[in-house]
Amino acid sequence: MTPGFVVLYRWRLHPGSENSFVQAWSRVSDLLRSERGSLGSRLHQGSDGLWYSYAQWPSAKARDDAFALGSVDPEAGRQVEQATAERFPEIVLETVADFMLPAVGGGA
């Protein structure tokens, strides 16, 4: 497995903006994977009401280089911002084995 650089993002959304946020986040995530070298990401809402995204990159440099190019979808970026009531500082996690792959045996 390829190790990857993983970043945790967290947001509190405005009530009623969840669908817009998820759709826009999904577009950006797909484009970062297909056009900028991301290894993928996952999004979910926690029991605390916050939305969490774990994004994996081949390295910290690959992530920095991808974001230095600017937005992959400015309209989706605006939708994410409009849906966001509060954005928390990102957390850089240790380099890990590819957490994006499903568990052995296919369980989730």
Describe this structure in words.
The two termini are 18 Å apart. It is globular and about 35 Å long. Strand 2 and strand 3 form a beta hairpin. The longest helix is centred in the first third of the chain and has 19 residues. A four-stranded antiparallel β-sheet has the order 2-3-1-4. The C terminus is likely disordered. Helix 1 runs antiparallel to helix 3. By secondary structure, the protein is α+β, with helices and mostly antiparallel strands.
Largest sheet: 4 strands, antiparallel
Number of strands: 4
Our estimate of the beta-strand percent is 25-35%
Shape: globular
The residue-averaged pLDDT reads 86
Number of helices: 3
The proportion of residues forming helix, as a percent range, comes to 25-40%
How would you spell out the order of helices and strands? EHEEHHE
Would you summarize the structure shown here?
The chain has 108 residues and is of the alpha+beta class. The protein is built from three helices and four strands. Helix content is 35%, strand content 33%.
Summarize the helices and strands and which ones pair or pack.
Layout: E1 4-13, H1 18-36, E2 40-45, E3 51-57, H2 60-68, H3 74-83, E4 84-96
Antiparallel strand pairs: 1-3, 1-4, 2-3
Helix pairs in contact: 1-3
Key terms:
108 residues, alpha+beta, 4 strands, disordered C terminus
